[in-house]
Structure formats: structure tokens, C-alpha cells
Amino acid sequence: MDQKIGSALVVGAGISGIRASIDLAQMGYRVTLADRAPHMGGILSQLDYQFPTDRCGMCRMLPMVEGEPDKFQVTLKQAPSPVDPDCCIGCGQCSEVCPVEVPDAFNAGLTHRKAVYLPVPHNIPNTYTIDQAACTRCGACEPVCPTGAIRLSAMGRRAFRILVVDDESIVRNSLDAWLGDEEGYTVEMAASGPEALEKLSAAPFHLMLLDIKMPGMDGVEVLEKARVIQPALQVVMMTAYATVETAVDAMKIGAMDYLVKPFEPDALIPKVAAVYDAFQETGYLKRTVGAIVLATGTTCFDPSVGKNPMGYGTVPNVVTSLEFERMLSGTGPDAGRLCRPSDKRPVKRAAWIQCVGSRDLQSGADFCSTICCMFALKEAAVARTVAGDDFQATIIYMDMRTFGKSFERYGQQTWSTDGVRLERGRVHSIAPTPGSEDVAIRWTSASGETREEIFDLVVLSVGQRANDQTALLAEELGIDTDGFGFVRTVPFSDTRTQRVGVFAGGTLTGPTDIAESVIRASSAAVNASRTIHRAGGGLVEKTAVPDAYRDVSREPPRILVVLCRCETSAETDSDLDALSARLKQDPAVTQVVVLEHICTADGWNALTQTDTAGVNRVLVGACRTFTYGKKAHGLAASFGLDPSLIESVAMDDRQGPDAPATVAAIMAGISRLKNVSAIEENSIAVTNRALVVGGGIAGMSAALAIADHGVDVTLVEESEQLGGNLTWLHQTIDGAPIAPFLDDTIGQVDKHPGILVMTDSRVVGAFGQAGHFFSTIETAGEPTTTVEHGAVILATGGREAPTDAYAHGTSEAVVTQRELETRIHENRLDTDAMKSVVMIQCVGSREAPRNYCSRVCCPTALKQALWLKSRSPELQIYILYRDMMTCGLAEAWYTEARKQGILFFQYRPDRKPEVSINTGDKVPVSVRLHDPILDAPVEIAADLLVLATGIESRLPEALALAYGAERDQDGFFQEADSKWRPVEALKAGVFGCGIALSPRSIPEAVATAEAAAGRALTILAVERLPAARTTAIVRHSLCTLCLRCVDTCPYGARFLDDAGQRVQVNPAMCQGCGDCATACPNSASIVEGFSHRSMFGAIEGALVAM
Amino acid sequence: MDPFEPAIIAFVCNWCTYTAADLAGTSRLSYPKNIRLIRVMCTGMVDPQYVIKAFLEGADGVLISGCHPGDCHYINGNYKARRRVKLLKEILPRFGIDSRRLRLTWIGASDGIQFAGIMGDLVAQTRELGPALPDLKMVI
Fold this sequence. Notes:
Chain A is 28% helix and 23% strand.
């Protein structure tokens, strides 16, 4: 394939921005990732737990191996950081002396922090930063920093240096007071021309305020000479009224402006500010990029604005769901114990109020925030584990929207546990309880009665809101936002904005959850890549190829030990001497060097320049392991040694260098190094072709995305034509016709030179691994063929589930949603002949046999109901539902349907509607149900009964197994991780998209297809797949072919070779977990760097000093 | 006489507990100095031989600590470790080693505070059990 070129900008470093950046970087682009906050992670750094595991696991997302659309000029405002992250060692001494205390946004304001602080307490590496708005510039932190990392002078106006030149001290002093003390600039003064020139030669200045009439050398002469010394210096002349003409002359030779003395601060300060602004802009980062991915996300709704009916901020112990998340966290205000804010009493009864700032026309939110139902369920579940079994959770909600993959089962599991109670209702007031700190909630229940209950704590499930910065960003980039402030996309896409080359990931185009954010991010990334690729490049930025490391595999280990020391004292010296002598007793240790302050720039330079010619392993002992971890590759390059031959160990700086723990750590490190051999670079050749199974919209989108990158695609479709479910769909809920979109997509596929379409074909067998699969394809009436490919995408889709419930199949008047759609599509529906239509949702869904929400049926019911209403406004339409799953922006259609007079009846699964078919002249169908509001039975006569039966998977088990993928319990594609790796199988090189993953709409299916294509391209875009650094190998001479290792490998990376003689490891699939090494009874299976010898040595080393 | 200071070997997984230890260190949390951390990629990599070896070399306690259930970076290595610990607890008494000297915990990457707390508890418990070596001599 073509060489990848170019660079991209990703704005927003939350989960989507990170995902998009990793994807683009893995595809070979240079990526600039920008964020407003001083740290990465977005809101996720504040969320410790995610369902379904109620834990995090974000690490699984990491790569396991270490103008015109093609030209965007972007300018990034980069705030200079007063704390040098390369020098900061996170010791926290600055924070101890800082006198400023402000609420900590990280803990949602529940705790306080200093103006110099750790933005995220559990970041690694973790460096301090200064909150420039809160900082008073008192300067207390600067001298206490042991590594000199803090330079307040680099911050804001302090970095702007003004030279005041005047012979009158009164002028100098008042300017110093105005500009220095009040405005915060750095001001220096000179009493004469020669003194000014001297200062200009000594240090750079940005602005000079220069008097004209001075004894000796006058202002004009100073100006001429100054411009030679510092040509970029801006000069404002200060002149008496009599010499204004001279000032004008001065402007001709380079002064930018003049002021007539005497002048007021008001005249001076704006001029200085203008120069300062221009100066700041020179510090902005300018980049030319081929495409832009926006992932700036959303913010949480602030419940204290407006009428504040929930009493947030006024009634004690009312918190937001984000605050509650922090209260549960180990890094939160109470170190993970669940105490309420007002009196720190343990919380035993808590209520969650859903839809605060969502589905709320009064606060301008006619959308569903999508995440809050699952968020509340998860918080209730986690709170029970934190607060104990006597914790009682009550969730007051309108509809429980468990619409995503595995959501329904998680929900059922949570709300069926004792102590978690769901109450359908709407809260109308919250009040403090007199005489206690408890909170009283009054709400209207589903049956219309008013209920009141008292809780220890009330959690407001606050919705997502468009970020207020989105509008500015959108205007700058010339893209559109909708009425709620979300970025508008083109039809049938969740990630393409109207401007070619600008894409949006995550929640920017509408509220969504983590998995969908990650999918949209990957989709945005692959679309950005297509844009850059199509443009043919021109923006080459290649990273330097690292020099080859020295081959030391045949040398005996010769170890250099570098020890860092913080303090210089006779005691430390003698301790270090003793330690050195002790270490040198080991014959493998050839040299011990003591350096000072490796954490500082000087120390680091000394480390990198250490002579390593005579050694082949290096051990660095210093107080912060991670400081070296992130720089290990840098050290590897300067030493010319493979990174696996460089080890760093933490020396405990609370104890002396010869303390037993320190000695043990170093000894363990040495013994590990002795037994490590340089890892040879394993890699396997990649077949640059993709196989896509399934020719629906997902399969076609995936094929196009891959083929647009110059990689060939074979697209296999079982039926005789492409299109899948789109062939029978009429239009979308927005009214966009499907047929033109489908025809256009099929046209693109047919015309694409890189796509080979095989219809009437099926995959009948496959084997192989990431990088090289073989698939056998059977085509009707033709001989079978074998395709070699590097990755496979399963896009087998789904179909409407069949049913015989509610008398389906016995009457023409009972149809499924698809049958109704077909009648509409084929113009076979006589709407004038009908008076009443009933729709029943969740037929066989969200309970056995399909215990999941099919997600599209509620919007489909609304779409069909609104279409019928538009045809026949007099038609009575009744929708019988369990929970209306109109997530995200689809909520607006639910509102619209109610406005149009469509009636909604809620039913419970234990009280389903009953249907009977009438004969003769009567209205054909009678539907009886129990109405919860009237608390009475209701009977509806219907001309048409529409059943929403949901979607079932069409992924054959044999097909999934042929590629080593698995199906989940509902028959859908089992992803590697539901949140972090939502479109790939655990087995590398196998991807899933569209309805094969789980039921979803057209734009969502397209997004998963593009995401899968992007993930597949990280394999297909390279010629050879590099292996992970730490992988397992087999010592064949010791192997008895018991195959226990093959069975235990969670990645399927091991296999018996064709001759059945040797167990082989695919280095591209092996992740180095070491299961095989532990399972092997003969020590024939070894993980590089963790051999038994190495581990035994480490254990001995660790205990020898005790 | 100085109180008995037990020597404890902790096999910690690269992704969760090792990171938590780093976090505890960088957060300036104090935890006992008796712990010797040995980093492994996954607790599923901890061969029962390593545990026996540690006791034979003079450890008074051994900790294996990895990711929380369902959270293993390598899918299920921590469950495999759990099975091995169960077996080891059966076997260790036959070597004269109290099975309480071997502990298995789950400490996630962001649990720096928990890491420090658990290490404190562990040392206190092992201190109560006393030195392991006398038991061993009885076996030999």
C-alpha cells in the first residue's frame, strides 16, 4: 500500500480524543492532541468504576505494542506551564507551602486544594501544575522546589518584560507601580541611555518605554542603538508636549507609538496590553494538519442554575452523580468511605433522581443524556459494596433506559438485588427535614399519587450538556451546531461534520456512553485518515528511525549500576561507598557510578552521558521508578542498548542508601538483569487484504473505509445483492429516504477498484492468525476459492425476530414493524380505511428469549406512528410500551409524538396486554390492557396491530469459531472489552461491526463499521506486524507437547505446527501474560525477562539483605 | 529487644498493584518498609515454585496481588492465581508453613491508599505470626 503521510490534530483529550489519537498514531500519522485541561483523561479520570465489571480496566485500550481538506492551518494557544514537567518529581513540597486554598474541581468541589496542585491525584507520571487563576504569585513555592522545576516568571504577564527608561525617578517609580505591582508585568528600570543599552545587551525585553529628553544620550539615539541590539523590541516613546515632533520622527525609525507626558494609567495600560497580547500570540503553536478530529465532549448539567427545583446547593446532602462518584472513590474526600457531606455520617438510605437536566423542556433539554440510567444503577451497585448490605438505594425515574449491549442484564441484576428499588415517578420537590440533616423528597408515582420519603442523601443524575466552548470552536471551523449545541453531522453519519476534513468523536455530536464514544472516536479517526490519504499527502513528518541497538546476546552480563543521591553528607557518602563495595562483590557488576539529582536536567544529562562502552546492562537506582520508566526509550537510544537491558529500581528516599529494602531492591534488579537476554525483534509478514463478511450497510462501509486506504478488500455477501436490511427500509425517523443513500453506497462499492464483491457466497472455513488468514469461500454454481487476508471483519448483521405472540400470523391486521415498513415502502397501506392503530413494544425483548433491548424498535414505532399521523391526522394511535428507549436526540421525536396526540400506555412484563382477533364486520383486533394511571382495565379496538419484536443476530457460531471469535449469550459478536475495545474480538485481527455487535441504527452501524475498519487498518497498513516487547518463547528441547500452554493461552497465540512437532507462538498475538510459563510442567515455556532463573534470582536478591 | 520485623515478598502485577504501589509512593503515603515488591506482568505468571522459594529463602510472608476480579489486563490471570493460592494454602502447612503467611489481594491501579493500608495490615498480621524460619527448621 501507499506510504502513510501527514499529520492530524485531535482536539480534546478525553476518552474519545485518546482513542482517536492512538488509532491515528497506529496508522502511522503524526498526531497533535490538545486539551484545555492540564491533564488527559477528561471526565473518565474522575470515574473509578464502570459497569459491567464495576471496575475500570481502561488499560485494555492501550496498544499492546509499544483551509482545504488536506491542509488546515491551526493555531493552538499553549499556556506556558510554570512547572517544568520534565523536572517535577511530584514531591509536593510546593503544595505544602502554598497559602492559597480553592475548591478542587477534580473532587467536584467536595475537597480543597492548593493553587499549585496535582490535577489528577492518580496520574502516572504525576507532575504538579499551577492554577494560574487562583495563584497569587506570592513566590513561596519557587525556592522550596528541590529540582528548580517551578519558574513563576514563565507564567502569564510575569514573562513579559518591560524596560522603563527615564531620567526622572518619579516617572520610573510610578510606572513600576502601575505596570509591575498592579498589572503584574516584570518591570526593570534604567535612569539613562547607556544604562538602558547595558540592560538590553544583558537580557531580552519585550517592550521599552523610552523618554526622549534625557541628559547625555537622548531617546532617539537610544532607540537607534536599541534596535540593533534587540530588533524585535517594541518601543513606546514618552515625550513632553514640546517634543511631539521628535516622537513622530522616532516612529519613523521604528518606535511603535508615543505618549505625551503627563499621562494617566488609563492611557498607558491599554497600549501595553496590546503589545502583550501580540507577544502572547507569538508563543502560540502553529501546525498544518491534514484533518481535524474534534473530541471536546460535553459538560455535566449544573442543577443550581435556573429555578433549581432540586435544591442543589441550598438543601444539604443533595449531590450530583459526579460528586457521588468522587465520594465513592479512594482518591475522593473520604478516602472511599461513603459519608454524606454535611455531617460525615455514613450513608445508609440514598435516592437517585433521574433526568435532572435531561428530557426536560423547561431547561431546554429535549434530549436524553443516555448515560444516567446506567450511571445510577452502577452507583447504586457500587455503593452497596462500599456501604454494606444494609445500604438502601432508591432510583426515581421516568423510563429505565437499558438500551445498550448487556445493559438490560446488568440492570436486571442490579434492581433484583435486595436494597435497590426502582420507583417510576416524577419528583416535584426536595426539602430539608427540620431537626436533622436528612432530605425529604416528594414525588408523583406512576399511578398519580403523591409520595413522600426521607433519605440520608439525594443524588441528582445530572445530564450531559453541550460544552459552552463547542459553539466557539464550531464557529472557528465553520461547522454547524444544533439547537442544543451539539455538532451537526451529515445524514447517516455520527462523525462527519458538514466540512470535509473535520470530524467529531465522542459526545460532541450528541450524548452517548463510553463504548459509543470510543466507537465514534475510531470512526472519526479513520475518516480523518481517509481525508489525508485521499489528498495524497504533502505534509510528510517522519519520526526518526532509532539506531540499531548493540547486539550483546553472546556477551556475558556486565552491569553498570547508577545510583542517584539527593543529599551530600559524609554519612551518605560512606553509605554509598559501602553499598558500591557490596554490589561489586557480584562478578556481573563491573561498575558502580553515583550521580546527583538524576531528577534534574543536569542530573539527567550526566546520566545519558555516562560511558557505557564497557558494559551491556544498566541498572538505575533512584527515588522515582516511573521517572525513568517513561524515559527508558530515551536512555536506550543514548546507551545503544535494548530497553529490556535497562532496569530502573526505586530506592526508598525515606531511608539511607544501604537500608535493607534498598539493597534488596537493587539486588533483585541485578539478578533480573543478569538473566535477561536482549529480545530479538519478532515480526510477522502481513497480507495486505481484508475480508469483510456481510454486504449490508456496515459491511459496505467497512470495505469502503479500508479500500480508500489502498488496501484491497474482498466483500462476501450471502444473498444475491448488497444492501442487507436497508433494502426494505423506507426512510429514517428524520424523514431522510433510505434508497438514494443505499444506491449511492452500492455504487461506490461497485466502482471501487480495490473492492472485490462476491455475492451468493459464504465463508465455509478459515484458519490463520492476525496478519495472515486463509478463508475458503463457496459461491453458488462456482468452484470454491481461497482468499488470503490479513484481517477479517464480521458484518453479518441481524434480522427482525419472528413471533407468534399476540395472534401474529392469524390475521392480516397483526403485523410486525418490518411488515408495516414493507407495506409503507410498497405503497400497500390504506391509511384512510383505518381509524385506530395499536403498537406493542418489547414483544419477546428484554425477557427470555431475547433478554436485551433491541434499541431501534422504540424510535421505529415513533417513526411509523408519525408517518401514519402525517398521512391521516385523524388516525388514533396507541403505543403500549415498557420503557421508551428514545435515547440521545431521538427523545425529541417522543416529545413530538405526544404533541401530535399519540397516546402512550405503559405496561409491566407481568401484566402484558391481551389481544383477540374479531371476525365479521367488527374492528379486526381488540387489545385489552391495564392502565396504571387509571388503575383500571382498558380495551382498544384496532384496525392494525403492530408488534415490535426486536432484532436477532445472524452471526453463525461456526463462522465466529472459524476465526477464533466468540458469540455472546445472545448470539452477537463478543467484543474484547465492552467499553474499551468494542469492535474487536479478543483474538487479534478479527473485528465485528454493525448489528453483528448488537442492535443499532444506520448511523451507529456505519460508525462501528468505520471503527472496525480503522482498527483493522492498524494491522493492514503495515508490512510486518511488530511483536510485543515481552512475549513468550518455547524451548523445544524441553517441550513434551503436553499442550497445556495451548489450552491456557487467553489469546489463542499458541498452536501446534503443521507437522505436529513443535508448539509455536505467534509473537504478534502473544501479550506476555505468562500463563503458559506457569502452566508448563517442564519450564519449556518462558516469558522474556521473567524466566524462572531470573525470578529466583530476584527472590534471592530481595531476601539476601534481610 | 527490637520488635520482630517480618520480611515480606510481594508479587505484584504490572498493571494494577505495581501501579498502585507507585501511586502510593508518589502520593507520599507511608507503608511499612518490610515489603519487597517483585513485579510480574500478571499474577497468573506467579508459579507456585516462586512462593515456596520465597519461604525457603527466609520470607516470613508472601503476598500475591493483582487486578480486581473481572478487571485483569490479561482477561483471567488473576483467577488462575486464585486457584493456585488455594492449592498452595493446602500444601504450605505440610512444609511447616502457616497458610496464613500467604495472602492474595486485589488492589487496582488507582487504589494507592488501599495499597498502603493493606501493606500495613499485612505486616501487622505477619508480625503476630512471628518468624517463619523456626517452622521451617522443624521440617528440615
